[in-house]
Amino acid sequence: MSTTIHRPVIILGSGPAGYTAAIYLGRANLSPTLIQGMQPGGQLTVTTEVDNFPGFEEGISGPELMRKMEAQARRFNTDMISDLVTQADLDPARRQGGPFRLTCDSGAVYTCDALIVATGAAARWLGLEAEKRLSGYGVSACATCDGFFYRGQEVAIVGGGDTAVEEALFLTNFASKVFLIHRRDALRAEKVMQERLLAHPKIHPVWNSAVEDILGDPQAGGVSGIRLKNLKTGETPVLAVTGVFVAIGHTPNTALFGDQLDKDATGYLVTKPDSTATNIPGVFAAGDVQDRIFRQATTAVGTGCMAALE
Questions:
Q1: Alpha carbons 103 and 85: distance in angstroms, whole number
Q2: pLDDT at 264
Q3: pLDDT above 90 covers what percent of the chain?
Q4: What angle do helix axes 191-199 and 162-171 make, rounded to 10 degrees?
Q5: Residue 97 has pLDDT above 90, yes or no
Q6: What is the dihedral of CA 185, 189, 193, 198, to 10 degrees?
Q7: pTM for the full model?
Q8: From the candidates 112, 145, 288, 291, which is the catalytic residue?
């Protein structure tokens, strides 16, 4: 039978939000426990170069940035647990005033008086083998993060919703040409955004098309092109591009909580205005798990700080 371990405050997630919360809690002598989850370090561990995080004038690799954050959190006596929470009992009625209860994949059970949820969000991908092989070598799910590296180059963005349109417009600040690949012959994005995109001379929509493969070799400079399939004609043209941005949405990692915590229509945790507090007193949400708009390391750090202070 598993022993129940009680901690004053537990953080779920080990991305920028989780580690920042741990640093602030540790400095306040609250001895935080951080359960790292399935991907210690979060999405930044698959980002080769981070050029927009303040304090690193020459840039820093994603894994190295997360290693430094983890080391700083450990310096302030954060108890790092390499485990995955599989069940969370947060409902006040069931707890009858007792602590929150977390059951882990290992069988360990933790209880706590305060909980910070920083489980992040996962980018949706096309499901191609080449996405993994070329991740960081021309394949990205974040134009805001990586667009700078494609100055003067031709790139492609895949998607037809608000995110794809916004990121396509953003990429025009750097790229010489932006191909927008969409499975249909009309966009789903807001009308005003569509008008801006369709009027932009650098953006070239490619309608009724799906990405069949991404071409290139990490050892030979990365992405060299994409093979498309026209869903009406069956033709399979190749576009020569050096960057491919997948913008078909993100999935927040909130399934664990069921309907205990309030979520918006897309599954992101809802927090009170100007706060990280959720609908359950004592439970706070920080980082990409509650941020469907910005999804940046710097904004995650900010809400991680807020959650710890609250």
A1: 6
A2: 96
A3: 82
A4: 30
A5: no
A6: -10
A7: 0.79
A8: 145
DSSP the chain: -PPEEEEEEEEE--SHHHHHHHHHHHHTT---EEE--SSTTGGGGG-S-B-SSTT-TT-B-HHHHHHHHHHHHHHTT-EEE---EEEEE--HHHHTT--EEEEETTS-EEEEEEEEE---EEE-----HHHHHTBTTTEES-HHHHGGGGTT-EEEEE--SHHHHHHHHHHTTT-SEEEEE-SSSS--S-HHHHHHHHH-TTEEEE-SEEEEEEEEEGGGTEEEEEEEEETTT----EE--SEEEE-S-EEES-GGGTTSS-B-TTSPBP--TTS-B-SSTTEEE-GGGS-SS---HHHHHHHHHHHHH-
What pLDDT sits at residue 295?
A: 85
Which tokens in the block code for residue 233? 């004609």
Give me 64's structure tokens.
């190295």
Active site residue 145: yes
Q: Please, which pLDDT band fits residue 93 given cuts at 50, 70 and 90?
A: confident
CA distance 117 to 112: 13
Q: Which of 40-49, 105-114, 276-285 has the lowest mean pLDDT?
A: 40-49
162 flagged as catalytic: no
The answer to whether the beta carbons of residues 126 and 150 sit under 8 Å apart is no
Q: One of 83, 89, 142, 213 is an active-site residue; which one?
A: 142
Residue 112 annotated as catalytic: no
